[in-house]
Design goal:
This protein is mainly alpha-helical and 522 residues long. The chain has helices at 2-5, 16-35, 42-53, 58-62, 72-83, 88-114, 118-129, 132-136, 144-163, 167-183, 187-193, 223-233, 235-247, 257-285, 295-315, 317-329, 336-360, 369-375, 379-389, 392-410, 418-430, 442-447, 455-463, 489-496; strands at residues 437-439, 478-483, 502-507, 513-518. The longest helix is centred in the middle third of the chain and has 29 residues, at 257-285. The protein is globular, with a radius of gyration of 26 Å.
Length: 522
């Protein structure tokens, strides 16, 4: 079995046509979503300003906004924009499309490496190309795209290493994990803890090599091999730490390193502290006296249920059902190294996201995509098994169901936000540079081209519309106020107190609007 599955080629060991079609489809999806996207995501504002600031030096770029403290992504955007002479916006789109392409091809390669059956490889392409949440962020300018690409590459190379422990695979894993960490700081958790998987790896790789020509001594097995493997997987880390220790032995503070150190040392204790505070609040304000003794259990079950719902929502119900089916039927090949790698990545993802969720009671959908990408590796195996059992019509119905659940990630069916872009463009053209402007919308502030880098210091104060009540609106020459259909009556009441003439109203079909008020004489 191992001989059949073994391959020394990285990506083209299966049907090359799968990779070609998947690559074309991924590029088409990325271009399509970008072209139909009228508004950049809020985080993009920080990354683009930071990239533009790179011309003044990396330290200046790192201090411009919160996300820029981890500057690798912004530096890449800036570098590419200079190399091919495009705007930082287009540079970011090109980079993110490339990273998404790498993620797609690597996901397929992982499925192909686990089991080189042609149909499984095609199903792997289908699964990743129709992954709803993964597709829904294609147009977003976020460093996560690079993180996911190299995160998946690290899984791929570790699978290679645990099946055939050669130094090249160890170095490729280490490089991939380091680059993933340069995109998102939580990659460092995988960088630190994944090498410990060599401890339970008693029947991995080295135990399956061909019989050696010379007798093996005690150093060729057991503890010696585990230490050797651990060092190989950390070779670049160890070298880098030695160099950095020599060069910066007095002061080694880079970006969010301190934050990472704090989370590693205090993350679990902070989570326990927040859990205790939530339990006390639950007991004090919600539960009855009779149910106080079960307060901890109730809160724990609530958090678990909420976390599971978040994960299921991220995967989609159909993918979740297929994953559960694959687990029940034990459809993944039984090779221990594959299970060790996949479950190792799953465990770390769950621990990291659970600690974050307990601390913040919040999980953005993209925070769970790394977890979803590993879980989705089981989906092609479930589909392959079902296609063996189901009649052709039922198999086609299953494919159609997956397509229907995924289409929302490719085509947006929500209410348009184009009106925000239109309002911003109007302000950029019509508002004098010296005029004082108020706006309660971050993206509108960006497109108005009026605030510059100051947007990061004043935006939070501007978001609360109460900051202009009691005639405080009079200090501004222009007020551009975003009102959603479901805003509170109090917000509408505050806006209706403004006595400036209404210069323009931009709105969508739902009734969300931006009202632009202008002082009569400037």
């Amino acid at each position: 079995m191992y001989g059949v599955m073994h391959t020394k080629k990285f990506f083209l060991s299966g049907d090359k046509l799968v990779y070609l079609i998947a690559a074309i489809m991924s590029i088409v999806f990325s271009i399509s979503t970008i072209l139909h996207n009228s508004l950049i995501n809020p985080d993009a504002i920080c990354y683009l300003f930071s990239a533009d600031e790179m011309k003044l030096g990396i330290h200046s770029a790192m201090n411009i906004c919160a996300q820029a403290k981890w500057p690798f992504y912004s530096a890449m955007v800036y570098a590419l924009s200079k190399i091919i002479s495009v705007s930082t916006l287009n540079s970011a789109y090109i980079l993110d499309s490339l990273f998404t392409l790498i993620s797609v091809l690597t996901f397929i390669a992982i499925v192909n490496y686990i089991s080189p059956k042609s149909r499984l490889v095609w199903l792997g392409a289908l699964v990743i190309l129709l992954a709803h949440e993964f597709n829904s962020v294609r147009q977003d300018i976020i460093r996560d795209h690079g993180y996911w690409a190299f995160y998946l590459l690290s899984i791929y190379f570790l699978l290679h290493y645990f099946r055939e422990p050669q130094i090249r695979y160890a170095l490729l894993w280490n490089i991939s994990a380091i680059i993933a960490t340069l995109f998102r700081v939580e990659g460092a958790v995988f960088l630190l803890f994944i090498p410990f998987l060599v401890i339970p790896a008693k029947e991995v790789g080295w135990a399956k090599r061909s019989v050696p020509t010379k007798p093996r001594d005690d150093r060729s097995s057991g503890l010696f091999l585990r230490i050797k493997s651990y060092i190989q997987l950390n070779l670049i880390n160890i070298t880098a730490l030695i160099i950095l220790g020599v060069l910066f032995h007095r002061n080694l503070h880079v970006g969010r390193i301190d934050e990472l150190q704090f989370q590693l040392m205090s993350g679990i204790s902070n989570s326990i502290h927040h859990f205790t505070e939530m339990k006390q609040s639950l007991a004090k304000y919600i539960l009855t006296e009779e149910s106080l003794r079960d307060c901890g259990i109730i809160l724990c079950l609530t958090l678990i249920f909420s976390y599971v719902i978040n994960v299921v929502s991220n995967l989609s119900f159909i993918y979740t059902a297929l994953i559960i089916y694959a687990w029940i039927k034990q459809l993944m090949p039984k090779e221990f190294s594959v299970k060790l790698v996949l479950y190792g990545y799953l465990l770390i993802n769950i621990v990291v996201s659970t600690i974050f969720y307990t601390e913040h009671l919040f999980l953005s959908k993209r925070y769970l995509i790394a977890l979803s990408l590993v879980l989705m590796i089981w989906v092609p195996f479930a589909l392959d098994e079902l296609f063996k059992k189901l009649k052709p019509k039922l198999s086609m119905a299953l494919i159609i169901l997956i397509f229907l659940t995924s289409i929302g990630g490719i085509i947006s069916f929500g209410y348009s936000k184009k009106y925000i872009r239109q309002a911003g463009d109007w302000m950029a053209t019509n508002v004098p540079e010296q005029a004082s402007v108020y706006s309660n919308d971050y993206q509108l502030m960006y497109y108005s081209q009026h605030f510059g880098k100051a947007i990061f210091s004043i935006a939070k104060n501007y978001f609360d519309i109460h900051s202009i009540e009691n005639d405080k609106w009079k200090q501004y020459d222009y007020l551009a106020i975003r009102l959603n259909k479901y805003d509170s009556p109090e917000n509408f009441k505050i806006v209706n107190q403004i006595r400036y003439p209404l210069a323009y109203v931009f709105a969508n079909n739902r009734g969300d609007q931006i009202r632009i008020y202008q002082r009569k004489s400037l």
